[in-house]
UniProtKB/TrEMBL annotation:
<protein>
    <recommendedName>
        <fullName>HMA domain-containing protein</fullName>
    </recommendedName>
</protein>
<feature type="domain" description="HMA">
    <location>
        <begin position="1"/>
        <end position="63"/>
    </location>
</feature>
<dbReference type="GO" id="GO:0046872">
    <property type="term" value="F:metal ion binding"/>
</dbReference>
<dbReference type="InterPro" id="IPR006121">
    <property type="entry name" value="HMA_dom"/>
</dbReference>
<dbReference type="Pfam" id="PF00403">
    <property type="entry name" value="HMA"/>
</dbReference>
Amino acid sequence: MEAIELKVDMVALHEKRVRKCLSKVKGIEKVEVEASIQKVVITGYANRNKILKALKRMGLRAELWSAHNEILSNYATGSFMFNNYSFF
């Protein structure tokens, strides 16, 4: 089983729609949505391209989660830490 992390441009209202849309994709077993930081974690055997295509059909822009997204989300929530020092 594989965990795929995505950054999805959405608001809290889209959370239920994202779960419903992704639950229909074959091979997905679990969908976790964190709307506050626009992060979706998918667990299963689904193809990444199929997942991105399903979200695109729904009208949402999605990309694979990266370290850059992690830094931006921490900065936005005010919980940025580096070497156990809190900056915000």
